[in-house]
Amino acid sequence: MNKPIYFLENIFNLNTRLFNNTLAGVTEEQSSERISGHSNSFKWIATHTVWARYNTLMFLGKPAPNPYPGLFENFKPYDASDKYPSLEEIKTEWKKVSDLLKDALSSVSEEHLAADSPLKSPIGDFTNAGTIAFLAQHESYDIGQLGFLKKYLTKEAMAYN
């Protein structure tokens, strides 16, 4: 527990499991539904969460090619004309990026965490560690939205197990 990133590792590990739990029971058809014209679809949020986790690797000094370039850059909103991956593809990419994230978290140096981040996160800590903390919160927020939509779509709550 002496690593500075220990608690963030715990959050990311929990989120790895919770993300998978939000997808359980959601059909491909349901994943494309929007509850209003002002909201994102389940599939959009799930794909965005995977995309963001790939971006987290960059701040850990272990960038990997993001499979969803162009879908979310510059705060791009939901666009019905965009092609979003299937839930199975999303699950596959989540597993891949989660394995990469686990490795990156276990090997990141304290010096790298303390270095200035190229992204100035809204939490006010402008180090790589501060940006990673923000991205953990952002990911948790996305998973909360997915949990809400899962309950709405399937009538079943997300499990914590």
Give the SSE map.
Layout (H helix, E strand, L loop, with lengths): L5 H18 L4 H4 L10 H18 L27 H21 L2 H5 L13 H27 L7
> Could you estimate the helical fraction of the residues in percent?
55-70%
Q: How is the biggest beta sheet arranged?
A: none
Radius of gyration: 16 Å
Could you give the order of the helices and strands?
HHHHHH
Backbone structural class: mainly alpha
DSSP helix count?
A: 6
How far apart the termini lie comes to 23 Å
Strand content: under 5%
Contiguous low-pLDDT stretches (5 residues minimum) are none
What is shown here, in short?
With 161 residues, the protein is mainly alpha-helical.
Structural features, described:
By secondary structure, the protein is mainly α. It is 58% helix and 0% strand. The chain contains six helices and no strands. It is globular, with a radius of gyration of 16 Å. The mean pLDDT is 95.
